[in-house]
Amino acid sequence: MVVEDKHITYRIYLVAVAVFIMAIAITVKLTNIQWVEGNYYRKLAKERTVRNFVIPANKGNIYSADGSLLATSIPNYNIRFDAVTPKSEAFQKNVKPLADSLAVLLGKPSSYFQSELRKARANKNRYYLIARDLSFTEYMRIKSFPLFNLGAYKGGIITDQRTIREHPIGEIAERTIGYERITPNGNPDGKGIEWAFRKYLNGKDGKILKQKIAKGQWKPIRDVNEVEPQDGYDIISTIDVYIQDIAHHALLKQLELFEADHGCVVVMETKTGQVKAISNLGRHANGSYYETTNYAVAESHEPGSTYKLADLMALLDDKKVDTSAVFDSKGGVITYSGKKVRDSHEGGYGKISLARGFEVSSNTIMVQAVYENYKNDPSKFVNHLNSYGLNNRLGLQFEGEGKPRVPQPTDKDWSNISLPWMAFGYGVSITPLQTLTYYNAVANNGEMVKPQFVSEIKAWNRTIKKYNKEVINPKVCSEETILKLKAVLENAVKRGTGSKLYSKDFSMAGKTGTAQANYATKGGSEKHYISSFVGYFPADTPKYSCIVVVHEPNTSKNNYYGADVAGPVFKRIAQKIFTDAPSMNEIKNLDKKNRKQEKNYSDYYTKSQQKHHVVPNVKGMSGMDAVALLGNLKIKVKVIGVGKVKTQSLQPGESLNKNTTITLELS
After folding, report:
1. What is residue 129's DSSP assignment?
2. What is the mean pLDDT of each successive set of 10 residues along the chain, which is 667 residues long?
3. Is residue 431 a contact partner of residue 300, using CB atoms and an 8 Å limit?
4. CA 204 to CA 59: how far, in whole Å?
5. How do strand 636-640 and strand 661-666 relate by DSSP bridges?
């Protein structure tokens, strides 16, 4: 009996010790949680019940110079189905009506959707894809369908919303408008206006604190740390949609005709440097063309004969020779250090003036003129090229500009043939836009202006930043030289290499260019051609300058010269802008009224006033659009806040009186 009591006592002690040890462990753990890990667990609890949510800012739009929408953000929806969520009774009752509705919206048989929905239910699929890339209108329709109209927790509809960037005018000027994206590595990347002006377009995201409530929902908690989103500003580009459409289709037609690899065209306003059109088309494997690389801005290459304008400018400015100086083309072949320079015209041109040599694009004439006058001091010639800006980037408003190259006498690879080769556009490198900027300076009486793609940054009716004309060089050469250059450029079209483009009804001035290029990646020594034309119109009072460059036209068509390949694009653009435009000739005013016509017009105007002179409903519109609409109706507008119209002081349908003022509250 005593032994048994002793065993019981030991067990009691053992249990007591175990309880004591557990108590100590619990105390240590509680102390550790409270004082050592307390901050971590408090933070974790707060994160799971209270969280900061980002309120994304609305991205700004990009507009053309004439107000057309070039890029805008729109909501895009993917719809999925949680087949487990709906109760059996609700699913069986609504599955056929839902399938019927989906068939009408998405264009597949009702039986297909009914089968797929039942299969998803049987497989307990909680994320079955119903449709991708729906518009807001389509999303609202699908939300109202049977079963889905019960909501996420009873009907199983799952909505995945994202914002996508749309180009309402299609792929025209797509590479210049550009894009912003995140690479697979998670790094931000982009091109064109979208990327260069992202700090204005994107705005600033807001943030709001929310608390988790039942069923995974989050309720906003208003506090002092809440930050309202600031919507992005709108970008007003210099692109003119009418000119852009002309340039794009003129280039496309010629690329297709000559089965060329790629090409570009740029139209620039002479006085301001504003780029009114830019198209860059590359050939797809299937033979179609689309906007690939911004060749006009990025692709630096040998220009060929269009570079000869720089020869003439330097020679005339230094008064080395005049345009009337006579040179012998020497049978169309001339040799420098064992290398031959040839004219495209077999047999040469005999003895002709320097001006005529430029007009017919004689390599031998232009090379002789440069070499004979600068061979003892090539630096003087090269310094002219540098002063014309041909050795520098333009410093455009967005990234990706190609680097030009003008060989310098101090370079290690400078040789005896460097100077003569430069004279007919070889051994140098320049982008199409840089070439155009140089020619535009001649058209603009010597003032070189920077190409401009964006004219203004706006917040609805308020200007945030304005980009004015930027002068690169106020005078590239003397006035006397400019006048002579203009004359030879006009004659190059009238009676030179561009004579096929000449029209007595419309004046143009410019220069053709045809350069040979050997691409090792495309067959080693096989010859490829770059055909170009650059100039301005009208010749007497230049309004626009333009360059067209076409790479690798199909030589089997036996025509790869600039006048035949690139020139027609230039002419088509000039004709469509001016010749095909409505006539602006003055018509004699007879000052005679037609009473019947006047009465009909008066009656119509009175009815129109009665019909249209009422306050429109602008609720929900963006502030900028609402102000523009009301302004057209001669209504004075007072704006409070930013965003979309929340309330308007005058109700829709009210009659308009003189000097009416409406107050718009935006949110």
Report:
1. E
2. 63 78 79 69 62 79 89 87 92 93 93 94 92 87 93 88 81 85 83 91 82 64 71 93 93 93 96 96 91 93 94 96 94 91 90 95 95 95 95 91 95 93 93 97 97 93 92 96 97 94 90 75 61 95 96 80 91 84 42 45 40 68 66 69 74 72 77
3. yes
4. 9
5. parallel
Q: What is the DSSP letter of 316?
A: H
Give the integer Cα–Cα distance in Å for 292 and 615. 47
> Which residues are CB-contacts of 393 (< 8 A; sequence separation ≥ 6)?
401, 402, 403, 404, 434
Residue for token digits 């483009």?
501
Structure tokens at 602: 């008066």
The residue among 92, 292, 53, 265 whose CA lies nearest residue 192 is 292
Cβ-count burial of 210 within 10 angstroms (0-12 exposed, 13-18 middle, 19+ buried)?
middle
Cα separation, 199 vs 202, in Å, equals 6
Residue type, 643: G
If you search the block for the tokens 């360059």, which residue do you land on? 547
In terms of Cα–Cα distance, which of 659, 663, 646, 657 is closest to 614?
657
Q: Are residues 390 and 310 in contact, defined by beta-carbon separation less than 8 angstroms?
A: yes
Tell me, what amino acid is at 588?
Answer: K
The whole model's pTM is what? 0.75
Structure tokens at 436: 């155009």
